[in-house]
Amino acid sequence: MTHDTTLSRLTEVDLRPLEQRLRGPLLRPGMPAYDSARLLMNRAVTRRPAAIAQVADTQDVVELVRFARNHGLPLGVRSGGHSPAGYGMVDDALIVDLSGMKRITIDPTSRLARVEAGVTSGEFAAVAQPHGLAISTGDTSSVGFGGLVTGGGIGFMVRRYGLAIDNLVAVKVVTASGKLVTASELEHPDLFWAIRGGGGNFGIVTEFTLRLAEVRQIIGGGLVLPANREVIRGYLDYVVDAPDDLTTLAKLMHAPPTPYIPEARFGELVLWILVTWTGSKAEGRRALAPLRALAEPVADAIGLIPYPAMFNYTAHQAIPICHFIRHTFAHQVGDAVIDAALDAVDHASSPFNMVEFRGLGGAMARVAAEATAFAHREKRYLVSGLALWMDETEDATPHRSWIDALWSAIRAEGAGAYVNFLEDEGQERIREAYPSATLARLTEVKRTYDPYNMFRFNQNIIPAVRG
Ligand SMILES: Cc1cc2nc3c(=O)[nH]c(=O)nc-3n(C[C@H](O)[C@H](O)[C@H](O)COP(=O)(O)OP(=O)(O)OC[C@H]3O[C@@H](n4cnc5c(N)ncnc54)[C@H](O)[C@@H]3O)c2cc1C
Predict the structure, then answer these.
(1) Can you give 356-414 as a three-state secondary structure string?
(2) Statement to judge: residues 306 and 264 lie in one domain
(3) 269: three-class secondary structure by DSSP
(4) Which residue has the higher pLDDT, 317 or 323?
């Protein structure tokens, strides 16, 4: 065993003994499946790992961690492949790819679900729906549970049911020592606390146990309004004080060619509000009225739908694309930010660029900040700028300039970062993701479970130095 921080080169290590122990394939450069396996959601990132292990089960993960530890090898972790930074693949590293681990077990009586890390939001919603059950994960069907849940999970019903981690009961996790442990409020509670928001720093989660909510039909869909300062201000003021049953996510963008937007309005600057109402039908109509009254809608495609149908409204996001993102939590969104967002999208580097406003609060804010490593509980908004383009051979410079200019205009109003939306933005931004007391506690847990920082290709928590 070595704890050497100068790691061995994988090319110098004989991987055959490892390969013989694995049930899933170990892909190396030159093998037919290697190039498709290393593709990520963010096509602006290209990486060439030394080997990608497509694990079949938890035992494969144990074998990989032990092998990497014994040989001092760099180890990356991939589940759904949606990290904006592209952390799911690492140059010259051994990758633990959990995307094939897709078992879902639901007990409708206890409303508990066991979900393997490679399951995506859309896959889970489709399996839970026939039981009349659901969990609030993210807004895009293809995002993986592995990264989403360890980072927090801000979903379509966050104001009603909290973050995904607020419904987490236990995890099975392979720690840096190669041990499989269960973490919950009763077992390894420090690890359980850290995994709820600390990202991939503390081990590889192979299975999540989550408590589901009873969700059958919702009132949901898209309300498309013409975008101007008054409409955005009206939206922002209303959605954070609306009933908890209403969760929204608004995208300031150019109207895309979708079937429910009139063709004549394609390309117009719009505020596209994704709406999820989990209460009664009559109250839903009342709760939505203030949004509908903000302006004559370009399109109103809100109706009674099964929860998984919400993902149809974001199907265009579930395909690989090149992107840059900058984001911030905020207590308030001032007119200067609204004006900067309007100007930026109006002069975008690509027709797909957008600024997203999420209204938070509700159940998410009722959990104590110190209860989980995700601590930005009281923040009312999450604001994100996204530069999006299709062709990975295109020069990214204009998109980088666009996002940088937008960021310099909005960041002053910011109040904290979300690990799941961070690119590789350095330690300063990781410190924004965690209040100082949270970060201090995280570094202690890191020292206990990963003292040599094996899991470091992420929004990295540096282990505390032994006192
Ligand atoms: C189009 C799009 C939409 C999104 N929408 C939302 C949203 O609505 N709400 C939201 O909260 N987030 C959202 N996200 C962000 C998303 O939650 C993060 O990118 C998350 O990390 C993705 O998880 P993944 O498993 O798909 O990613 P991967 O790239 O596979 O993993 C990212 C990192 O997470 C860690 N990780 C992954 N799997 C495991 C595991 N099994 N155990 C331990 N650590 C692990 C590792 O550090 C890994 O490098 C979105 C991202 C995209 C690209």
Answers:
(1) EEEECCHHHHHCCHHHCCCCCCCCCEEEEEEEEECCCCCCCHHHHHHHHHHHHHHHHHC
(2) yes
(3) strand
(4) 323
Cα gap 358→332, rounded to integer Å: 12
Q: What is the pLDDT of residue 303?
A: 97
Q: Best of 317, 420, 456 to mutate for ligand 1, by most ligand atoms within 8 A of CB? A: 420
Any domain includes 92? yes
Per residue in 208-240, pLDDT tens? 999 999 999 999 999 999 999 999 999 999 999
Q: Which residues line ligand 1 (CB under 6 A)?
A: 41, 77-84, 87-88, 98, 117, 138-140, 143-144, 146-148, 150-155, 199-200, 204-205, 317, 420, 457-458
Cα 413 from Cα 428, distance rounded (Å): 16
* Residues 144, 140: Cα–Cα separation, whole Å: 10
In angstroms, rounded to a whole number, what is the distance separating the alpha carbons of residues 40 and 84?
9
183 and 305 within one domain: no
pTM equals 0.95
Share of the chain above pLDDT 90, in %: 94
Asked if residue 150 is part of any domain, the answer here is: yes
Q: Is residue 457 part of a domain?
A: no
User: Which residues have C-beta within 8 Å of that of residue 111, sequence separation ≥ 6?
Assistant: 133, 211, 212, 213, 214
What is the whole-number distance in angstroms between the Cα of residue 82 and the centre of ligand 1?
5
How confident is the model over 401-438, as pLDDT tens digits? 999 999 999 998 889 999 999 999 999 999 999 999 99
Total of domains in the chain = 3
CA–centroid distance for 14 within its chain = 35
Q: What is the CATH number of the domain that holds 80?
A: 3.30.43.10
**Tokens matching residue 116:** 């393997």
Does 222 lie in the same domain as 187? no
Residue type, position 142, single letter: S
Q: 120 CA distance to ligand 1 centroid (A)?
A: 10
Domain that holds residue 76: 15-97
**What is the 200 CA–ligand 1 centroid distance (Å)?**
10
Alpha carbon of 186 to ligand 1 centroid (Å): 26
